[in-house]
Each structure stands twice: as C-alpha cells, then as structure tokens.
C-alpha cells in the first residue's frame, strides 16, 4: 500500500490533486476540505491509501491519518464502497461521524449522500463498537481555497456525477445552492450539494 505521498502540488482539481513524487505526477483523490488545504507549487504530505480494482488503481489522500482510518473502516461495512466512504468524510467531520456512530444518531448519518435509514442502522450496528465518541467537537474548519469563477456549476455537477449521482438530481442540488448563495465557491458548493442530496434520499 502507498502509505503517504510527499512532494510539490502540480495542480488542484475539484476532486483531486496532482502531487509530484520522484518525478512522477500522482493523481490523489480527496475531499473538498483536504484539497482546500493544498496550494499549487507548495509541498504537500498526505496520508494515502491505494485502492486496487481489476481495471483501475486509485490513490486517495487525506488530511490526516484519522480520516484515512475512517475511510478504510467505513468500507468494512457491506454496501459501502470508496465513493460512499469518501462522500461520508466529505460531509461529516471525523469527530461528528464517530459521535454519530457511537450514539446511534441516524439523523446525522442519513445526511450522507446515498445513506438511508437502513444503511445508517447497518453502519451503527457494525461500527459502533469500533469507534470512540470524541469528548468535544473541535472548533474551526479547514479553509477552502479559491476556485475558478468560470465553470463552477459545471465542475461541481461533474464531481457529483463522479460520486455516482445522476445528472438531473445533481444539477438541481447545485442550482438550489446557487439560488440562495450565488457566490459560493466550488468546494463549499460541492459540500452543501452533497448534504442536500443526502437529506433528499
């Protein structure tokens, strides 16, 4: 397994960054919050995990080791794959997720896109004893990096399609956010649209 990568950031997309390691540019997929902490041209070090499929090798990066462990833990639950695991940590902060699992808070868990009541109950049953509820919710959040002004709507819709949503619901969720907050940047727009899609299921 590729445990971590370190090197200059060559580029940042909506759902991934390209990090140069030993002269090779690696595409590292990550949440909006993690990507928001990176800067093009600056060195980054990200804990990672490599997901091997028959037709692909996909590298996922995380803000810290805790986030990576939750990503891996979520996939031990039947029906939870990499897309849903990444969407989960994109919508819920690690402490919020651990508390919801430990307390059996289905209302919080069903905010995750693609997770209904039955899936939330399964998450609680299978993971409750594997997590420790945090003592307190941490203050503050990772600041989002500025996103290109043009094509923000199209970028976010494309990212939602990549997470498994269909065209029409993705566009409706993005348009609803933009109608209330037209100046929302791409990463906040993606996070809010994901939360909206999670509540609508």
UniProtKB/TrEMBL annotation:
Residues 1-61 form the DNA helicase Holliday junction RuvA type domain. Residues 153-201 are annotated as: Domain III. Keywords: ATP-binding, Cytoplasm, DNA damage, DNA recombination, DNA repair, DNA-binding, Helicase, Hydrolase, Nucleotide-binding. Gene3D superfamilies: 5' to 3' exonuclease, C-terminal subdomain, DNA helicase RuvA subunit, C-terminal domain, Nucleic acid-binding proteins. One of its GO terms (cellular component) is Holliday junction helicase complex. Pfam families: HHH_5 (PF14520), RuvA_C (PF07499), RuvA_N (PF01330). GO terms for biological process: DNA recombination; DNA repair. It comes from the Bacteria. Signal peptide: none annotated. It is found in: Cytoplasm. One of its GO terms (molecular function) is ATP binding. Residues 152-197 form the Holliday junction DNA helicase RuvA C-terminal domain. Homotetramer. Forms an RuvA(8)-RuvB(12)-Holliday junction (HJ) complex. HJ DNA is sandwiched between 2 RuvA tetramers; dsDNA enters through RuvA and exits via RuvB. An RuvB hexamer assembles on each DNA strand where it exits the tetramer. Each RuvB hexamer is contacted by two RuvA subunits (via domain III) on 2 adjacent RuvB subunits; this complex drives branch migration. In the full resolvosome a probable DNA-RuvA(4)-RuvB(12)-RuvC(2) complex forms which resolves the HJ. Has three domains with a flexible linker between the domains II and III and assumes an 'L' shape. Domain III is highly mobile and contacts RuvB. Belongs to the RuvA family. The RuvA-RuvB-RuvC complex processes Holliday junction (HJ) DNA during genetic recombination and DNA repair, while the RuvA-RuvB complex plays an important role in the rescue of blocked DNA replication forks via replication fork reversal (RFR). RuvA specifically binds to HJ cruciform DNA, conferring on it an open structure. The RuvB hexamer acts as an ATP-dependent pump, pulling dsDNA into and through the RuvAB complex. HJ branch migration allows RuvC to scan DNA until it finds its consensus sequence, where it cleaves and resolves the cruciform DNA. This is Holliday junction branch migration complex subunit RuvA.
């Amino acid at each position: 397994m590729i445990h971590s990568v370190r090197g200059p950031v060559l580029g940042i997309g909506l759902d991934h960054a390209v990090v140069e390691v030993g002269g090779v540019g690696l595409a590292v997929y990550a949440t909006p919050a993690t990507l928001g902490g990176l800067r093009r041209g600056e060195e980054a070090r990200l804990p990672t995990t490599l997901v091997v499929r028959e037709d692909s090798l996909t590298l996922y990066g995380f803000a810290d080791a805790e986030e990576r462990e939750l990503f891996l833990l979520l996939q031990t639950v039947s029906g939870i794959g990499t897309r849903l695991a990444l969407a989960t940590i994109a919508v819920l902060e690690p402490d919020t997720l651990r508390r919801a699992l430990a307390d059996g808070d289905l209302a919080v868990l069903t905010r995750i896109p693609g997770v209904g009541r039955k899936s939330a109950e399964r998450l609680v049953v299978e993971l409750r004893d594997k997590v420790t509820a945090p003592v307190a919710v941490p203050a503050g959040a990772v600041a989002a990096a500025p996103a290109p002004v043009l094509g923000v709507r199209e970028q976010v819709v494309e990212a939602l399609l990549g997470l498994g949503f269909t065209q029409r619901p993705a566009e409706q969720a993005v348009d609803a956010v933009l109608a209330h907050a037209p100046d929302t940047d791409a990463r906040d727009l993606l996070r809010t649209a994901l939360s909206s899609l999670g509540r609508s299921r």
